[in-house]
Amino acid sequence: MPTSSLIALIDDITSVLDDVALLTKVAAKKTTGVLGDDLALNAEQVAGVTADRELPVVWAVAKGSAINKAILVPVALSISALAPWAVIPLLMVGGSYLCFEGAEKIAHKLLHNKGENHVELPVPPVDPVAFEKKKIKGAVRTDFVLSAEIITITLGTVATAPFITRVAVMTGIAILMTIGVYGAVAAIVKLDDLGLYLNKRQGTLPRLLGAAILKAAPYLMKALSIAGTVAMFLVGGGILTHGIPGLPRSIEAMVNGRASWLVTLVPPLLNALVGLIAGALVLAVVSLGTRMVRKTP
After folding, report:
1. What is the tens place of the pLDDT at every residue in 207-244?
2. CA–CA dist 223, 93 (Å, integer)
3. pTM score, two decimals?
4. Of 40, 118, 140, 255, which has the fewest beta carbons less than 10 angstroms from its beta carbon?
5. What is the DSSP letter of 244?
6. Residue 5 belongs to what H/E stretch?
7. Euclidean distance between CA atoms 155 and 92, whole angstroms
8. How far is CA 57 from CA 64, 119, 138, 141, 186, in A?
């Protein structure tokens, strides 16, 4: 009898761990849009910091990010336990915000007049300590918004799972995202140093590799930014699509029986289209509201 109970307990634990692993994988895929943008934004936040202070700044922001998630995860779990009806509206808000951010980036690129003439004013001396603290504070504030999106998307993935599974998945995603993002940011901001180090080494191969890294580093940042923007529309549009009753089934019926490449490509493209339209609409509303507020005496 004790043996059978132990075996049953082990089976239950194994089942929970399988569910946690599967849902963590699904949640990680759904948060790729935020992850790409998180990488680019945080790498940009370190710009201007002296080389010897880059890693300490990244570490300080990573600690702030861990505190952000330590606040957000319990709040999200409380919502899922006490007001599960709020999960879908929160997801729709999070998806809309992702699409808005993507549309805002594109609008800024298209509407910003690069040829605009302006006079460079002399820059007053800046206190390095105060500058560093300002950078960290701004990065942690940005991280709070992005972490909220990650936690909200994860919450939608595990909304119907048992509570213990929700706790494990959301905690796991919070830890993985923090380590993954800031580990990658630390590596990105030190690419230049690695390139310089290799460039000074003896031998043709290290020098060629160092030169290639130095040349590729700026393009890597641009690629991360572009990938993050595209993923915002894919992920945000996917969230909105699945929140509209009947739309996922209509998309599935549209590609049912078609060629495999259509089945693979059409749903993400439609998600991106929904995300682009939603982002443009939200951006228009926000821009109009901002103008009205500014005109109000």
Report:
1. 888 888 888 877 877 777 777 778 778 878 888 887 77
2. 27
3. 0.67
4. 118
5. S
6. helix 2-30
7. 12
8. 11, 31, 12, 14, 9
